[in-house]
Amino acid sequence: MSEDGTDSGRRRFLLGSTSVVGAAGVVGAIVPFVGSWNPSAKARAAGAPVRVDISRIEEGAILGPIPAWRGRPIFVVRRTQEALDALPTLDSEVQDPNSEQPEQPEYATNQYRSRSPEVLVLIGLCPHLFCSPTPRLSIRAEPFEADWKGGFYCPCHGSKFDMAGRVYNGSPASRNMEVPPHYFESDNILVIGEDGVDA
Predict the structure, then answer these.
(1) Which residues of the chain have pLDDT under 70?
(2) What is the three-state SS of the chain?
(3) Residues 116-164: tens digit of each pLDDT
(4) Integer angstrom CA distances of residue 64 from 35, 115, 138, 154
(5) Interatomic CA distance for residues 183 and 187, integer angstroms
(6) How many CB atoms lie within 10 A of CB 48?
């Protein structure tokens, strides 16, 4: 074989090899770039709706706080009839008795601040400085309130909220606790993070 033939073969081999390596490099650079256009799995999960089985929550009990939606703690409370009956008696003691401030979806702008009277869903953060209030669900005298009708108490600065998450007059917090978007997929499955088809 001549020297020219050998050089020609080597040139073709080197040219082909270089092209393949170059193409692989371009693909390797493009794939992460294109992938960056889509939200990461972590970002999708942070805002994704969550399903909660509420079948085991007994009357007068709470599920939570659970870091269920957008990294924020969620309270799910099954209210007693006694707690529901007490809500209208507190209208004069809370800052926003008719939930006129937009701290809940429109379908939860009612005296219960919920889709279902017995099930309360709240973001478990005090609107004052975003501490997590302590659930004090029983109707009984408490050190901070002799005639306590159940609700939530923030020990950080003393904000008080009733069993609908409405803030009491005189609390450092100026707003009700937030109600997240939610709906009932079935009698036992609560979906937090979406309004549902009937919103």
Answers:
(1) 1-6, 20, 22-46, 67-68, 197-199
(2) CCHHHHHHHHHHHHHHHHHHHHHHHHHHHHHHHHHCCCCCHHHHHHHCCEEEECCCCCCCCEEEEEEEECCEEEEEEECCHHHHHHHHHHHHHECCCCCCCCCCCHHHCCCCCCCECCEEEEECCCCCCCCCCEEECCCCCECCECCCCCEEECCCCCCEECCCCCEECCCCCCCCCCCCCEEECCCCEEEECCCCCCC
(3) 999 999 999 999 888 889 999 999 999 999 999 999 999 888 999 999 9
(4) 36, 19, 16, 15
(5) 10
(6) 12
User: Which residues neighbour 136 within 8 Å (Cβ) at sequence distance 6 or greater?
Assistant: 142, 148, 150, 151, 152, 153
